[in-house]
Amino acid sequence: MPENEQNTPAAPESGPTAASGNQSGQSQISNEMLSKLVEALNSLVHRETEQSESLERIEEQIEQTQEKQEESREAWTTWLTRFVMDREAGWRLWLVQLTVRVVAVVMGISAFWSFMGWYIDRVEIVRMAQTYCDTAVQVYEEEENATVALELLDKAVELNGNDSEIRFQRAFIGGMATVRDLLNLDRPINREELDRAHGALAQAHMLQRLRPKNPESHILSSQIYTALKKFDAAESEIKKALSLATDNPLVRWRHAALLMEKVTNDPKKLLDHAALLAEAEKELDAALDLSRKPKSRSSSHVTSWTSLVTLPFIGSDSAEATAHLDKMILLWKGILEAEHRRNFAKAREYYTEALQCDPGFSLALSSRGMAWLKDEKKDLTKAKEDFLQALGTDPNCVQAYYGLGMVYGYQDRYETAKSYFDKGLAINETSLRLLKWRGIVNAEMQQWDAALDDYGKALDLDPADYELYIRKAKVLEKTGKPQEAISDLLFAEELHPDNPEIAYNLGNIYLGVGDTERALAQYAKALVQKPKFDDCWAAQADALAKANRMDDALDSMNHAVECAKQEPERFLLRRGTLQQTMGRAEPALADFKGAREKDPKLAAAWWGEAKVLADLGRVDEARPALERYINLHPDDAEARQLQEKLK
To answer: Which CATH architecture has domain 129-314+321-330?
Structure first.
């Protein structure tokens, strides 16, 4: 049953009385109940309304709450999204910054280690380049070996070519190498060498601009001018070097060399040779004293920035020993004594002192050998020892080969002499001296074509060498070409009109072709130029004898004997033969005896003595003289016949 029905009051029992009474009462109750019911319904409705409103409010609140929650969720989501996005961007930025910093640190460390590796390498490279440079300078100054020095400097340039000190030394030593070649020439300078000289001079001028306060550039200029025989310019440059560095041994030494070269190139003695040589000796003494003092090493000329950066870590002594110039200066003191004062004993003392500094100094050995050869009392054995020792230390020592050739030439061992000249020419094929002396040796061996070939090559090197024309003319005369010989001698006379050797040899050729008058004219000309010309007096005697002017011939031969400085026995022999022809037996006999006393191996003197004695009938005296001759010439048939006649 419905709930409201159950709560409704029970119906009153029916009856009339009850019905009316009850009816009003019931009405009243019903009304009350209705009111209550209405009130209850209203209240219920009101409650429902309130509930509905409450529900609506709740729904609204829920909706609002949901909206707020949604808004809050959206805001949170937005915030969270933004937060996450901001954080992600921050993390990314942080990670990027961290990465950059890490990379920067790594790169910095890598760059530092790379720099340190480069720096260490540069230190080693600069040190090695400086070592090459210092060694090159030392080799040049101690050994004067520019070839090895330049090889070392080229390596230094490869390692550190921006260093001005290395470039300076390369230019200086390269220029001085050119100077050495030019000063050691025994012939005129050719075009190619002149260009080299001018190139070295240009280098010197550039060095002067690079380092105006350095003496080396002026030394180089002075030496080039000296080689070119421009002595005024050379003197001016060396004075500039002296003004910059009077305490530099190299400057003083080179000044002395210049003074000696001026003396060498002054054959007419227009200068005061004694004063120049005294000054040269003074300069060499000063150079020797300076070379024995220590010198400070300076880095003021290092301009390469890499060299400057690495310089603090390159060890260097504040004072190091000067390169030993002692032996070179002593060598030049010996040259001064030998070449200019002809004091060979004193020269040998200096060469020996130089060898005490360096026992293997080939230049001192070969120079001492030449001093033994040029001395009046030649010592061929000691000379040979020095030359061989020089070749033992320097197989390319041309002067030693020349000296050995001369040693064997003096002993008439011409094949051996020629072999040494050949070896020297294999090293220096343009040596005028070697070509000339090989030609002389070939002429002595009667190898005429070889002699003419050597003389021709020598004349190509020096077309103005009158002595070569004389020697060539002698060979041409012996090979039956007198006209060519005369042509060469006349050309030589144009080059050197006052030379007695040319007139003498012209006289010999004219005499050989039978032109006695021209021969006598040339001999007279030569004797005016050289009054004590012993060979010319003897040749004039022969020409006068051919002209049958016997007394004049004897007078001329007497002059030859009187003027003879070397091997006078040859003139005694010729005068004895002349006097024998003139019938002057006793004077002839005296000359023959005088000749063989000076040279017991002079067979012609023994023969002349034996013939004169035999003609005089002095048989007992003639026999021993004849026996001595036969011992020297056992195959002479005429001597055997005379021996049989004297028995």
So the answer is: Alpha Horseshoe (1.25)
More reliable by pLDDT, 390 or 89: 390
CA dihedral 375, 376, 381, 384 (to 10 degrees): 40
**Amino acid at residue number 192:** E
Q: Which residues pair with 295 in a beta bridge?
A: 320
3-class SS string, 516-585:
HHHHHHHHHHHHHHCCCCHHHHHHHHHHHHHCCCHHHHHHHHHHHHHHCCCCCHHHHHHHHHHHHHCCCH
Count CB-CB contacts under 10 A for residue 181: 16
Tell me the range of 62-71, 77-86, 565-574 where mean pLDDT is highest. Answer: 565-574
171, 146 in Cβ contact below 8 A?
no
> pLDDT > 90: what percent of the chain?
53
Output the CA–CA distances (angstroms, integers) from residue 632 to 89, 600, 607, 637, in the order listed: 125, 10, 10, 13
Separation of alpha carbons 513 and 101, rounded Å: 109
CATH 3.40.50.11310 fits 359-421, yes or no: no
Boundaries of every domain in the chain: 23-116, 129-314+321-330, 359-421, 568-647
CA end-to-end distance (rounded Å), the chain: 211
8 A C-beta contact, residue 247 and residue 326: no
Do 129-314+321-330 and 359-421 agree at the fold level?
A: yes
Q: What is the pLDDT of residues 178-227, one digit of tens each?
A: 888 888 888 888 889 899 889 989 988 888 888 888 898 999 999 999 99
The domain at 568-647 falls in which architecture? Alpha Horseshoe (1.25)
Listed residue (599, 601, 581, 580) closest to 589, CA to CA: 580
